[in-house]
Write a structure and sequence with these properties.
The structure holds two protein chains of two kinds.
Chain A lengths: L6 H13 L6 E2 L7 E2 L3 E4 L2 H8 L3 E4 L3 H13 L4 E4 L6 H14 L2 E3 L5 E4 L3 E4 L8 E8 L2 H13 L4 E6 L10 H10 L5 E7 L4 H11 L4 E6 L10 H8 L5 H10 L3 E2 L6 H18 L1
Parallel strand pairs in A: 1-3, 4-5, 5-6, 9-10, 9-11, 11-12, 12-13
Antiparallel strand pairs in A: 2-3, 7-8, 7-10
Chain B lengths: L1 H8 L3 E5 L12 E4 L2 H11 L3 E2 L2 E2 L3 E5 L5 E10 L4 E7 L14 E5 L8 H10 L7 H19 L2 E12 L2 E4 L2 E5 L8 H9 L7 E3 L4 E5 L2 H13 L6 E3 L7 H12 L5 E8 L4 H13 L7 E7 L2 H10 L9 H18 L1
Parallel strand pairs in B: 13-15, 15-16
Antiparallel strand pairs in B: 1-2, 1-5, 3-4, 6-7, 6-9, 7-8, 9-10, 9-11, 12-14
Helix pairs in contact in B: 1-2, 3-4, 7-8, 8-9
The chains are: A alpha/beta, B alpha+beta.
Chain lengths: ~290, ~350
């Protein structure tokens, strides 16, 4: 936990521990030697913490101006999964972090993500744990609050989740929809996947090739059908995206790839239930 | 004034509206003048006009060039592969968006390696220009400068279009630079300009409906608008209070929405890093300062929701039902029906 002694860092360390996550160490430069929350040791550097505890992942709760330094520090200490909760990280810093992660062959989740939840087991990040219950639905999303909305609706309808992954709401992020879909496809705990996207960028379109290859059904919801048109990034943005990024294009691409696209977030649950029913029937036939 | 400048220059001029937006020429913001009278005429037509939402308050009068060729050059972010991308074309100008893909050279830069002349040379070579020409050398050097601007200023985009060749010299006739908002903390000079200029905040957009909307997170705010539209309602605005919004931000957001005089206000908060008790305190604060009580549908779930609801109970404002959205649309319908009776 990088930034463990901050207000948010401490609050969410507590929440993560209560949910079942083993938080082995915290890092705040200058606060080394202290401990927080009944015995979680705080170190001055990720290197010291990593040497002592060999963590599977590091999560960043540091302010945006410090995020680049903190993320590079974690990657340099050979932490293989780095989850960046921080929002408003300068995009040039993100480019640098992701470039270094390619060198160290590490996974960066985010920035601007709610994190990752393994329902009823553990979580990294800020998602309220009480919304999730154990089940077979995998969720991958850009937006945090929209995911909470959909996950809690699924839970209310007794459609539990396996893993819930936030790839982050920024235009440039590490882990992609594609990467997560690939993992869900081979995950034994997941039977159906929910993709929560939004207008802008091409992350959803880029995932379509993967959706086509998947044997598991994918339900997609794209936010922003009626959103006011955003500001365009000059000609260059338009040249790169070439007609991609709008609601209609995304929905068409997802449908072509075989995803079930629902028009409202509240309809995800019904569609998931229908697809799970179909799958159960198919399995009985076999 | 424009006429005097044109007279001093003793040559045909171009009069250009100085506005912080693109597509100027197509919007009538660029005009050619052969003599001072024409320049004055163009200037008087342009001043005070609105282009892309910006009022024309100043003009640039400059020498009209004998244009041999219009090129295009830019550095921007290729978001999908997380690398800066250089783009270069010998076919620039106002229709660059319609230029065929194969006529635009694209080169990625490795952020760790940084920009080097070999990358720029390769880009220029791939346009088909011979590298031993004077023009090619100038383009390589300009490309290096463009990239360092991109880096130093935390830009999302640095673009010259058209980049013009006139008597063997390169001229940047129009350029656009956009700065990453998240980097403004270390780009103080740009931050000041943004604050003083006409740049609109992306988290608040006024719309033409009658249901005020406040939500937290771009995704859920968009989904809220979609849901309102689905049930036949019309949103008065888009307002994302963002992650981790505290009491003050929430109070300010509600003030801003109430200023639009909506028929109802829908507050849809799903707390993650945002704490419901902070939000509730903000709502209570804004309502305390407000003399009329708006028709409010509040949905507050997630982190610290119980504490949040306790605070709102204090001001008698508790609505945490799934159909808050539909209720807001109904409240608005009732409101407009009431108007008709009056």
């Amino acid at each position: 936990m990088q930034g463990i002694t901050g207000r948010q860092g401490l609050f969410h360390t507590q929440q993560m521990c209560a949910y079942g996550t083993r938080v082995v160490a915290g890092v705040t430069p200058g606060r080394g030697g202290q401990s927080v929350l009944r015995g979680i040791p705080v170190y001055d550097s990720v290197r010291e913490a990593a040497d002592e505890h060999s963590p599977d992942a590091s999560v960043l709760f540091v302010p945006a101006p410090m995020a680049k330094d903190a993320a590079l520090e974690a990657l340099d200490a050979d932490v293989k999964t780095v989850v960046i909760i921080t929002e408003h990280v300068p995009v040039h810093d993100v480019l640098c972090i992701l470039a270094y992660a390619r060198v160290t062959a590490s996974v960066v989740v985010g920035p601007n993500t709610f994190g990752v939840v393994s329902a009823a087991r553990s979580k990294i990040g800020i998602a309220p744990g009480s919304l999730f219950c154990e089940g077979v639905v995998g969720i991958v999303a850009r937006s945090g609050t929209l995911t909470y909305e959909i996950a809690s609706d699924l839970s209310r309808n007794r459609l539990g989740q396996s893993t819930v992954v936030g790839i982050g709401g920024d235009p440039v992020v590490g882990l992609s929809f594609r990467d997560v879909l690939m993992q869900f496809e081979s995950d034994r705990d997941t039977q159906v996947v929910v993709l929560v996207g939004e207008i802008g960028g091409s992350a959803e379109e880029d995932a379509c090739e993967m959706i086509e290859q998947m044997t598991k059904p994918v339900v997609a919801y794209i936010a922003g059908k009626t959103a006011p048109a955003g500001t365009r990034m000059g000609h260059a943005g338009a040249i790169i995206e070439r007609g991609r990024g709008g609601y209609e294009q995304k929905v068409a691409a997802l449908r072509r790839a075989g995803a079930q696209v629902v028009p409202l977030a509240q309809e995800v649950s019904n569609e998931v239930r229908r697809l799970l029913g179909e799958r159960a029937v198919k399995e009985e036939e076999h | 004034m424009a006429a005097e400048i044109a007279e001093q220059m003793c040559m045909p001029v171009v009069v250009k509206a100085q506005v912080l937006t693109g597509g100027r020429k197509k919007a009538g913001g660029v005009s050619f003048a052969d003599n001072p009278e024409q320049a004055a005429q163009a200037a008087s037509e342009m001043l005070g006009q609105t282009i892309g939402g910006f009022r024309v308050q100043s003009l640039l009068v400059e020498q009209r060039l004998d244009i041999q060729r219009e090129l295009y050059m830019s550095v921007t972010l290729d978001k999908a592969c997380a690398r800066p991308i250089l783009m270069l074309s010998l076919h620039g100008g106002i229709d660059i968006e319609e230029v065929a893909d194969e006529l635009i050279v694209r080169m990625h830069v490795d952020p760790l390696l940084g920009m080097h002349a070999f990358v720029a040379r390769d880009a220029v070579r791939r346009t088909g220009l011979r590298l031993d020409t004077d023009l090619a050398k100038k383009m390589v050097s300009l490309m290096m400068t463009l990239y360092s601007l991109f880096e130093i200023h935390d830009a999302d985009l640095v673009e010259i279009n058209p980049l013009v060749v006139s008597h063997g010299e390169l001229w940047a006739l129009d350029a656009k630079i956009t700065i990453d908002d998240s980097a403004l903390f270390r780009q103080q000079h740009h931050a000041d300009q943004k604050a003083g200029g006409a740049t609109r905040s992306s988290s608040f957009v006024k719309l033409d409906g009658d249901i005020g909307v406040i939500a937290n997170g771009a995704g859920i705010t968009m989904a809220t608008l979609d849901t309102i539209a689905h049930f036949g309602g019309r949103a008065a605005n888009f307002l994302d209070v963002g992650g981790g919004a505290a009491e003050e931000q929430m109070a300010a957001a509600l003030d801003a929405v109430l200023a639009l005089k909506p028929k109802s206000v829908l507050i849809n908060i799903f707390g993650g890093i945002t704490r419901c008790d902070d939000i509730a305190a903000g709502i209570a604060k804004a309502l305390d300062a407000c003399c009329t009580r708006p028709a409010l549908a509040v949905r507050l779930v997630g982190t610290n929701q119980e504490e949040g609801r306790r605070i709102l109970h204090g001001v008698g404002m508790i609505e945490a039902v799934k159909q808050a959205i539909a209720l807001a649309a109904q409240a608005s319908e009732v409101g407009s029906a009431g108007d008709n009776h009056r």
